[in-house]
Write a structure and sequence with these properties.
Blueprint: E1 7-8, E2 31-36, H1 46-60, E3 64-70, E4 86-90, E5 92-94, E6 102-104, H2 108-116, E7 121-125, H3 131-141, E8 145-148, H4 153-156, H5 163-166, H6 169-191, E9 197-199, H7 202-210, E10 217-219, H8 226-229, E11 247-251, H9 260-271, E12 279-283, H10 289-298, E13 305-309, H11 316-321, E14 325-328, H12 337-344, E15 349-352, E16 368-371, H13 377-392, H14 395-412, H15 415-435, H16 444-463
Parallel strand pairs: 2-3, 2-7, 3-4, 7-8, 8-9, 9-10, 11-12, 11-14, 12-13, 14-15, 15-16
Antiparallel strand pairs: 1-4, 5-6
């Protein structure tokens, strides 16, 4: 069927080569919409890579999958990503502080196209008010809605704050005590207007249950793309100055929430003095990249810390293969795709225990170490550094943990199991929709949903004016195509 306002190209090739998925598709499921914050992906981010995986897997199983997201307006950021073969773009405004990022808005033509597409299910893998598109479709057209939680609200609010506000204690108190609890309540209410919520770890299931989510919650870890990560690595990509000695690796977006300044401080204070030939390589880019570079220089780490920039996803197996230990201090991960990739590559991990995505992947003492960050940053850093030094000094333990890491990751991130779990979530959502079909939402609610969608992205647009534009993916690393 040709969808109005929906671009269509050729069908993508199968994931994992010629191997067929073992997941059994529901007989009623034909047309699937996946809402994603990017239609053309400008830089590496785990939620979009997860959307790409599902797009390919569901298309392979015979479904018609449409990516729903914001249109690009003007030359706002690097157009390095490819458009998906089937997509429906909504009107948008650019987020000034993040070139390449756009905020979708409701408008008559695209909404009419959404309603006419006759989707069997709407999967909202978004951290923005684009989720409201699924709520509106649920209210106006009774399309089952499954949301995916991709952001930990208390950990990410400071991303929008300029430095002069981020440095003020009263601002953080205001967010923690007032704004974040309000956003959590309204987000839970929005999830409850759908038919199911997907979270990526058991800890987040408890988190949202405690905040009032009543729709069925499904724990579905992300899959690892076998066509990329089942290879043997390749040529050594590290800086030639790291040839002698041990290599620590961290891969992430360079934003405050990833806690990279603390990692750099731990490296300088608690790791380097105990292992003089160790280096730390940071792969990634983001709004706070220059801040991290300056912090490393201030710590006197110019010849010990290397910033590799953002690299193409297809290149990442080489980085994992030639590292000794993966280190991670972020406490904001709903999942932490890079943790799964490192474990899949057989790389032991030392990370802070976050009781969320990272803790759901690393088994302490088995395939890595989870360190209690504690209430005192100094004590947490000392414990973190001690575990890193322990692994660097014990090649046999690294090899043993690496083998277990790969085995555990293969079981947890199996693509077929991931798709099967989503099919279960879709079946559950359809049953939930049928049970709630009559009288659940007043007709006026759909208009209120569109109004709140517009208001939320209006506020986000205004907040984007507080910080100056930053460089993202300055190396223009190619993101994976939707059809790989």
């Amino acid at each position: 069927m040709t969808l109005p306002h929906v671009a269509q190209l050729s069908r993508p090739s199968p994931i994992g080569g010629a191997t067929e998925s073992r997941a059994t598709p529901p007989s009623w499921l034909r047309r699937v919409a996946i809402a994603n914050d990017y239609v053309r992906i400008p830089y590496a981010n785990g939620s979009s890579f997860a959307s790409q995986f599902l797009y390919r897997a569901l298309e392979q199983n015979g479904h018609e999958v449409t990516i729903v997201g914001p249109e690009e307006r003007g030359a706002n950021g690097p157009a390095v990503g490819a458009m998906p073969p089937r997509h429906l773009c909504l009107a948008s405004v650019p987020l000034r502080t993040h070139p390449g990022v756009h905020l979708a808005l409701p408008s008559r033509g695209p909404l009419r196209a959404l309603g006419a597409a006759n989707f069997d299910v709407f999967l909202a893998q978004t951290c923005s008010a684009l989720l409201k598109a699924g709520v509106w479709l649920r209210q106006a057209h009774q399309v089952p809605l499954v949301a995916v939680n991709t952001v930990h609200l208390p950990s990410v609010y400071n991303v929008v704050l300029p430095d002069w506000l981020n440095e003020r204690a009263w601002v953080h108190e205001l967010f923690r005590e007032r704004i974040v609890p309000w956003v959590e309540r309204t987000t839970a209410e929005t999830y409850n207007r759908g038919d199911g919520l997907v979270v990526l770890s058991p800890g987040l299931k408890r988190y949202w249950e405690q905040r009032g989510v009543e729709v069925p919650i499904h724990v579905i870890p992300r899959a690892i793309e076998k066509r990329i990560f089942d290879g043997r690595g390749g040529a050594d990509p590290f800086d030639e100055r790291t040839v002698r000695g041990s290599r620590l690796l961290v891969v992430c977006r360079h934003v405050r929430e990833k806690n990279m300044e603390q990692l750099l401080s731990i490296f300088a204070r608690d790791i380097l003095p105990g292992h003089r030939d160790v280096t730390l390589t940071l792969v990634g880019d983001g709004p706070d990249h220059d801040t991290f570079v300056r912090h490393a220089a201030a710590l006197g780490l110019a010849d010990r810390v290397f910033f590799a920039g953002e690299r193409p996803l297809a290149e990442m197996p080489r980085w994992y293969a030639h590292a000794d230990v993966f280190v991670y201090t972020s406490l904001s991960e709903t999942y932490g795709q890079v943790i799964g990739e490192a474990l899949h590559a057989g790389l032991p991990v030392v990370a802070f225990a976050d009781q969320m995505g990272v803790s759901g992947q690393v088994t302490n003492g088995v395939d890595g170490y989870l360190v209690d960050p504690g209430s005192d940053e100094r004590d947490g850093g000392l414990a973190f550094g001690s575990r890193v030094l322990q692994l660097l000094g014990d090649r046999a333990s690294r090899a043993r943990m690496g083998a277990l890491a790969r085995d555990n990751a293969l079981r947890r991130s199996d693509p077929d199991a991931c798709v099967a779990r989503y099919y279960d979530a879709f079946e559950s959502a359809r049953l939930h929709r049928d049970a709630q079909r009559e009288g659940r939402f007043p007709r006026a609610a759909s208009s209120a949903t569109l109004a709140s969608w517009t208001a939320l992205h209006g506020v986000s647009f205004a907040l984007g004016l507080l910080r100056p534009p930053v460089q993202l993916n300055r190396a223009k690393a190619q993101t994976p195509a939707w059809d790989l």
